[in-house]
Fold this protein.
Amino acid sequence: MNPVRSVGGRRLAHFVLAVVCGGLPLGCDGGGSGGGKGKPGAKRGRKPGPPAQAMQVHVVHLEPHDIERWYRTSGTLEAIRSAELVAVQPAIIQKIFVDEGDVVRPNQKLASLDGRELSLQADAARLELANLQAELERLESVPGDAISREEIDKQRYLVETARSSVRLSRHQAKQTVIRAPFAGTIVTRYVDEGNLASTATPLFHLAQLDVLELPLHVPEKDAATVKVGADVHVELVDGTAFTAKLERRAPVVDPLTGTVKFTMQARETPAAAAPGAFARARVLVDSREAAPSLPRDAVFKLDGKSHVFVVAEGKSVRREVTLGLEGAERIEILAGLTDGDAVVAEGSAGITEGMPLTAVDDEAEAEIAAAHSAKDAAGS
């Protein structure tokens, strides 16, 4: 006979009750194994857990700061003037007088070409002019109407044509000497003596290196505040820096890029500054003095609008703010905050609306750091 059933099911019921009440669910008391009632007034159900611990956050306040916004770009330095010198008349190069790195004066002789053929052509033109001039004088000396006026006019035309040929021949003969069109430095020499100088092959690259330029393409929205004559801070790859001036502004906006071209010039540059050198440049676009502002990290975007988190009554509260000038480190706040608001320094650091927060400002952090230092000193 089954012993459980022999007691009319009482043992089975007691066993089930013990299993259910072992975990103390709702409706079971915390008494002994006999299943007796609990103490009078005992609270039924689970006790509420401890309150969520508040997260400590660093807070900042609106403070007046000078804010500057710079336009930054990079490019390669250019000579203020440069030219590729070519021969006007094809000829053999007889003599080269300069080399790379030489500083030349305006109209200085750089090379000479073989101009014997052009000189002979000039001599022939002069001889023909002399003969035609003599014939004109003879016709004009004939008395009376023996020579018609038409014949004399034709001879005068031939004389003027010959005179033009002489001038052209002289000019072509002079082109066999290559001269510097302006003062500068020979950057590159492309040919050697004995080479054929053609009208398609450059002989020298001449550049004026005492003034360097760098084009700056400023966005249209910022171009209105950039003035000609403003300082431009330039830095080279080796870390050396110098200051230049904005000298020119293009009168139009590039429709493809939406920018306005400015050109800076530098007349005093370090040794590393040369045409073709890579340079970084920045020019001041706008500035504010003593503007109420916050660090950039305190402001975040939500649904296309600017917000910050403020610690109020131990919880985070999201505030929409109106921004002014945005600098590299700080942003001007025009509306949405008061001077006493404790703003979370890192607004997008996983904080949500209503989260328990404990504000720690710079002074509190300094005190905590001093206390830790004192404790470490005492322990050592």
Summary: DSSP finds six helices and 21 strands in the chain. Confidence is low (pLDDT under 50) at residues 1-43. Residues 116-141 form the longest helix (26 residues). The first strand starts at residue 55 and ends at 60.
